[in-house]
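Exercise 7 asks you to align residues with tokens for two separate proteins.
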Amino acid sequence: MKYQIMIKMLMLLLSRRKVRAREIAERYEISLRSVYRYVEELAVAGIPIDVARGRYGGISIADTYRLPVGYFTKDEYNAAINALSAMSSQVNDDAIVTALEKLQQQVKRERADTAVSGNIIVDGGTWGDTKKFSEKMAVCERAVNESLCLDIDYISRSGEHSRRIIDPHVLIFKQNVWYVYAFCHTKQSFRTFKIGRIKSARFTGKGFKKREISREEIPLSFGYRSDELVELVLEIEKDKLPDAEEWIGIDNIEPRGNKFIAEVAVPDDDGLVSKILGFGGGVKILSPESLRQKVTSAAQRVIDSI
């Protein structure tokens, strides 16, 4: 009985996205204590459920969450849709109609996998992440297009976890990474959020009026000041050219004799040394000398650890 109710609670949240705890208790004839206990167990199972107290509170599920692709097979989806279609033509029941619509929408979402909109397909997730990134992209895109506030769980590069209410204004794509430029209610200013670092996102149910911003106002350095960038001059072996082009862009590389030379400014952070080491000797640092020494020291530590 317990697990049947938990499944019903999950289905209710998937259809409504936000429900008050008392309504769930009355619907399934259980105590409020049991409701919160079941919510906790669903959260432990990895389902992004959130509990908000107060007048406008309730139990909600992240808008990025969908049932696993294998929850129903294609044949099971079609069988359920056909059965409900037959019933809806004979029985005047609104519940059957809405259930049919939800199943049809789920089928459309499963077929859409990585499609964000129109003729654009985006799969910026990591290997093995088949849908989570594209679902976050779809939520962010809808929030931008329809001026809808988002409640996001965000993990910064330093590992800091924070909860933000944001007004997404525009999506940005730079160096194969997607960002959302949004007004942050916590900081009371515009911030740039890397979509890959958004753990979950929920629509708050509220809209916002977009502020007037120009392209020049958007900080495309993404938090890096000019003094945090380093001017690189690299010598690139031919067999490493495709990887280097994807990293720093074709326009920043030119042939010189039998070699390829790149001149570009990049963030001088901890990832830079690892990135250069990843080329396995196929990229030589011509300048600055300080970076060359860092890479040499890091390579020696790798050798010493073997």
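Second protein for Exercise 7:
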Amino acid sequence: MPEATSSATDARQSGGRIVLFGVAAIIAILVIAGAALLLTLPDANAFNARVEQLFIENDNLTSQGEVKLLEILAQSGTAFSDVLASYRLVIFVLLVFATALLVATLVFLVALVGMNRRMGEIERAGIQVNSLLISRDENVVYLNNMEFKLTEAAIETLSVLAEARMDGDVLSGSELEGVISGRSAADCDEAAGATRIKRLRDALGNQMVSELLVKNIARKGYMLSINKDVIKMV
């Protein structure tokens, strides 16, 4: 189990570094893009400055119509300044939203990759069992504090597999049937033991738990794919 723990810790640390670097890169890119965009926008007072320059250079415009035209230009400059200021605010808000969405996307992607990696480790290594408590009197098995109510036959099958696992043995179907029935393995049918394994898996119900807990080794037999130190029987 130390290797699995180390691998999981390394994966979490690697995922954390990826998130930090990704968030920093996203923020840096958006800050640079936002700064470049805001700096390239014209000055909000550029239009007003140009109108003021027209007033100064054309002080001989004294007719009522000419003065009215200059006033309209001045009002247009003020309106342009207000619109440009609102544009700057809209651009800033959009950049903030874009940053939040990209950061959230990165976090979800890293979480998804980490989950897929973890599921791959589980598929390769089998289910990680921290405790397996078998109660023959109550016909109950506690797997990682999850309670499974089994039939007497299923409990007997699981108990025999657990005892074999603690001894480091792999039982064939005929050997399993022989231990349970009290007969010689040579007098027992391989299919009878396989049937008991199938019934045990059906009793456990959860396909992933049952398939990974009870391991079938080709041309050898059956065993529990867990650490023998976590098994307890009462």
